[in-house]
Amino acid sequence: MALKLKLKSFIGSKQESVQAPIEETVTDILTIGAAVTKNKVEIKPVNPHEEQEIIDGIEENYYDNESFDTSLHELQKLPEQLDADHITEDCLRLRNQLQAVSKRVSELILQNHLAYATELQQVMDLQRTLQAAGLVCQTGRKHLSHARKSFTVASLGLLSNYRKRQQLIGLLKSLRTIKTLQRTDLRLREMMEEEDYCGAIHLCQECQKAASTFKHYKCISELSSKLQDTLEMIEEQLDVALSKTCSHFDHLHYSKVQQAYRQLGKTQMAIDQLLMHFTSAIHNTAFTIILGYVELTSASSGAANFQKRQYDDLCKHITTETFTPCLVDLCKAMWEIMKSYFKTISWHALNDQDSCDGDSEIFHQRYVGTKLDHGRSRIWEDVQQRVKKFVLATDLSGFKFDEFIYILDIINRMIEVGEEFCASKSEGLQDTLKLQSLNYFKTHHQIRLDELRMFLENEAWEMCPVRSNFNILHLVEFRFMRKWANSRHMIPENELTTEDKCESLTTDQESKSYFSCYLEEGNPFDKRFEEEEKEDVFSALLETDGELLSDSDSDVAEDLKKDYIDEITGEAHSYKHKRRSSSRTILHKQTPLITNTTLNVLRVMGKYLQMISILKPIAFDVLSSLTQLFDYYLYTVFSFFAPDACSHTEKAVNPRLLNTLQRIRDNLLTNSAMYVPNNKDADASTDKVATAKMSSVVQLSDPKSLFGLAERVVATESLLFLAKQWDYLQPYLEELIPITKKTFLSQFYSQTVKMAVEVRVPVYGVVSGLSVSYESVLQQMSTVRWDVKEIMSQHNTYIDQLLKCFSDLCKKLEEVDKRVPLPKVVINLFWEQCVKNANRTFVEGYANAKKCSNGGRALMQLDFQQFLTKLDQIIELRPIPDKEFVEAYIKAYYLPESQLETWINDHKEYSSKQLLALVNSVDHLSRKSRQKLTNIIEETDKGRRL
C-alpha cells in the first residue's frame, strides 16, 4: 500500500492540477493483502514443532534492529572459497525460515483482523482530513497572491517604519531608565552621607524593581547585582549608625535608624544588634580609656605594645598618680553608655506605644520590651566587671585619705547608678569596695594611732582659739553631715548658712534619681569631693588697746548697744567702751576648751565617718577603729594628769572608770619595748599602739601654776568636749551601723563616753590635794588642847591659816582663769574637793586628840563654824559639801551610850581609827561599853579589809 501511495504521489506531482485520490475501502485493502500473501508464500502443511524449531533457529541479529541489512549480513557470512552446495543449503534454510515467519505473521494478521480493520479505517479518515487541509492551504495561497497584487510595497514599508518607530520610542524610554539606574549609586551614597536612610532604602528597592523589569538587558543584569551589594552596604552603614547611639544617644538620629530598620522589616534583628553594640561599646570604651592612660604614663619608660594585652593585664599598669582621673573618666564613659541605654528604653516605650496598631506591632513591642528589660542586667554586669577589675588591679593602701574617700565616693555613686539602672545590689562591686577599704583602713588606722600618739607626746595642752559656738559641723570633714543635721533641726537657726537653707529647700530635688537629674546634661561623676573648702572654726578676735574684741556684735542685744551713764561717777560712756570691758570676759568664758590634738582627732573622726557613710558594709569595722581613737585619748589624759590617782585616791575614782581604763590597757596598748611604729610585718589586726609619754614642756609640779591646773583643765575639758561630740553623733551612728552591732555602740557610750566626765575628779583632785598644805594644818591641830574646861570664845589659828590658803588659792585660780577660761563646773568641783579635803583634815585632826572635854568639843564646833563663815566670803559654792561629815563627828561626842552604838553602825564613812578615837574620847562611857564599841569597830574594819 505504501508503494502504491508513493506511486500516486509521484504521478500527481507531474500533473497540472490536483486530482482527487482513489478511495479504497478497508475490505479491498484486506482482500488485496491476503491475495499478495497467498501469492508470495505457498503455505505448506508443516508440523508445528518443526515450524517452531525453524523460527527459533533464526539468528538474533534479525530481531535487533529494523534497519538491519539481511542481504549484507548473509553475504558477509560467505567464505572466501564459495561452495555451491553450501550456498544452496543456506538458501533452502532461509526460504524455510521465511515461510515459517510469513505463516506466523499471516496467522497473527488473521487473529487481529478486526483491530487491524479499525485502525486502518482511522488511517483512511486521517488521509481524507489531510486532503481537506491541502485544499485550505491552496485557497490561502490564492488569497495571498491576491493581497500581494492588491497592496503596494510602499504601503507595507510605511507600516514597517511606523512599527520600528514605536519600538525605538520604547527603547528610548528603556535607555533613559537604564541611564537613571546607572546614576543611582552616586545618589545613594549622597543620601547615606545625609543620613537619609529611609530614602536610600526606598530608592534602592525601587531601582531593584525597575532592574527586574529590564533584566533582559545584559547591563541591567550586572546593575541588579550591584544594587544588591549597595543594599547590603546600606545595611552595614545602618548598623554603624546604630552602634553610634550606644555612646551618645540622639533622639532624631535613632528615630531615623529605627524607621529604616522597620522599612527593611528587620526591627527585631536591630534590637539584637543593638544589645551586641552596647556590650562592645562597654568593652571597647573601657579598654580605650585604660590604654590611653597606660600609654601616657609608659611613654617615658619606653613604648610597649599594650594594644594586644588583655584588659586585666592592662589595668595593672595604671599608676597611683593616674588611678583617680582614670577611674573618673571610666565611670563617666560607662555612665554615658548606660544613659544612652536608658534613653533607648524610653524612646521605645513612647514610640512603640504610639505605633501599636496590629497584632504584629503588639508582638514587636513585647519582643523589644522584653529584650531591653533583660538587657539592663547584662549591660550593668559588664559595666560592673569593667570597674571592678580596674579597682582590684591597683593597691590603694598608699593613697591619701582624702583621695581614697573620693575614690570611694565615685564607686559608691556608680553602685547607686547601678541600683537605679536595674535594681542591682552590685554585690561584686560592693565586695571589691569592702576588700579594698578594709586593706586600706587597716594600714591607715595604724598610722592614725601612731600619729595620735605623736600629737599627744608633743601636745603642750594649750587652748586652741576656736569660735565660741564651735562644733564638729564647722569642720570641712563634717560638712557632709550638715544636710543630715539640718533635716533633724540640730543646727541653730542663727548658724544656718545660705547653703544650708538652700539645701533644705532643694531636698526634694536632690532626692531625684541620677537619670532624672543628669539625663539631658551633666554627669554624676563631675562633682569633685570638696576637700579645699574653707573653714570657719577659729575665733575672729581683734585686739584694740590691749583688749580682745569680737569682730562681730550681731549676737549683742540692741538695748546693750546704747550709750549709758555710770551711776557712781556720773560719766557718760559709749557702747564701744562698754563692749571693750565686757567682750573679753564673755568670749573668754564661752570659748570651748580644746587642743590642736582634739581638732586632729575630730578631723580623723570626720574622715572615718565619711568612709562609713559612703561604704556601709564596713561601717562596724570603721566604727570599732573610731572608738579606739577616743579610748586612747581618754587613757592618755588620765595617765598624764592622774597617774597616781588609783593608788592614792582610790575612793575618788569611779570603779567603772577603772574598769574602762583596764580594758583600754589590755586591748589597745602594747609593750613599749616591743613596739615598732608603722611595722608592716606586724599583725595589722591587733591595732595596738604604745603608751604615750608626756612632753617635757608640760610642768605639773610648779605650785605657782597650781601644779599645771591650766594644762589639766585644757586636757580634761577637751576630752569632755570630745565626748560631747560623740553624744552629738550617736543618732547618726545608730542609723549607719547594722542592728546586730548596736549593742557594741551602746556599750561604748555607757562604758567609755559616759565615763569621760569621771576623769575630772582624779585629775582635779590631784591639784586640790597639793594646792593646800593639809599636813601643816594637821600639825597645828595637834598642838591644840581639846581638854579645856571652859568654853572658848576665840577660834584657833589653824583656821586662819587654812582660810588664808584658800584665799591665796582663789587668787591663783583667777590668774589661771585669765590664761584659760575655767568653766564654773570645774571651779565648783575644784572647791568641792578642797572643802572635802579640809573637812576630812578637820575630822582627822579631831580624831588625833588624845583627850577631849565638853569645852574642847565646843571649841571644835566654834572652829568649824568660823571656817564655814569665812569660807562663804571666799567661794560661791553652795551648799558646802561634807559639812555634815564634820558636824556629825563633833556632835557624836554628846550622844548617850545607848545611841552611840547605833550611830557607829550607821556611819561607815569614818575610818576605824577615827571611830576608836571618838569612843576613847567620850568620858561618860563605862569601861564595858567602851570595850564593846571597840570590838564592834574592829570587827567592822576586818569586814572592810576582806
UniProtKB/TrEMBL annotation:
GO terms for cellular component: cytosol; EARP complex. Residues 706-938 form the Syndetin C-terminal domain. GO terms for molecular function: SNARE binding. The keyword Amino-acid biosynthesis does not apply. Residues 55-347 form the Vacuolar protein sorting-associated protein 54 N-terminal domain. Coiled coil: none annotated. One of its GO terms (biological process) is endocytic recycling. Pfam families: Syndetin_C, Vps54_N. The keyword Protein transport applies. Keywords: Coiled coil, Protein transport, Transport. PANTHER family: SYNDETIN. This is Syndetin. It comes from Biomphalaria pfeifferi.
